[in-house]
Structure formats: structure tokens, C-alpha cells
Amino acid sequence: MVHDRPPQPARVAPQPDRVRPTAPPDLVESLRSAQRAGGWRGLGFNVDDCQKTYEELRAKGVEFVQAPLARPYGSEAVCRDDSGNWIVLIETVDPTMPAATATRS
Predict the structure, then answer these.
(1) CA dist 1 → 4, 10, 39, 57, 101 (Å)
(2) What CATH number should be reported for the domain whose range is 42-97?
């Protein structure tokens, strides 16, 4: 077969469902299932230092709806992704520590 035009490079459309997640497969499937059912609205991440992580992400352009606040369990900061899902950064503390040293200001 003879072609009148030069070969074109192959083009592959992005396939979001083919992204290789780094989370355990059972967690990924659970999140995908909840998202398909319309029940997944947020995700929490444990961080070592909520204030530091908040500052690093803000410097990269992430807009937060709540700056880090002290809570009985530690501190948390909240932002939303482009789809409106809540993302919570959580720094937990040892509940056996005295309250004065358990949370950051």
C-alpha cells in the first residue's frame, strides 16, 4: 500500500483512569467507588508539620480556606481542589502529652 502523505506521530489522549496510584490498590478502589457513587467529598493527609506544609503549599499557589488551627487532636489546615473536594492537612499529637505542649500556636 502506498501513502501520499508522510507518517504522522501517534497521538494518545490522556486517560485519567490509567494513572498509576501510589496508594494501596484496595484504598484506590474504595476511593474510586465512593467517587463514582457521588459520596467522596474530601481527603485527609497526616503531615509531620502542618504549619510548614501549609506554608510550602501556599508558596506554590494552593489557596486555603482555613489556615492551620490548633485542635484537641493536633492542628489542621483545609483547602479545596479544582473539583471542590475538601483536602485536610492534619498534624496529630500524642494524647498523653500535656495540652500546653500538644499543639502548635
Answers:
(1) 10, 19, 53, 55, 78
(2) 3.10.180.10
pLDDT in tens, 71-83: 888 999 999 888 7
Residue type, 8: Q
For residue 39, how many C-alpha atoms fall within 13 Å in the half-sphere facing its CB? 6
Q: What are phi and psi of 8, to 5 degrees?
A: -100, 150
What are the boundaries of each domain within the chain?
42-97
Strand partners, 86: 42, 80
**What SS3 state is found at 92?**
strand
pLDDT one-digit tens code per residue, 38-52: 766 778 899 999 999
Q: What's the average model confidence in pLDDT over 8-12?
A: 50
Pairwise CA distance, residues 55 & 91, whole Å: 14
DSSP conformational letter for 16? G
Give the three-state DSSP class for 15.
coil
Contact between 50 and 74 (Cβ < 8 Å): yes
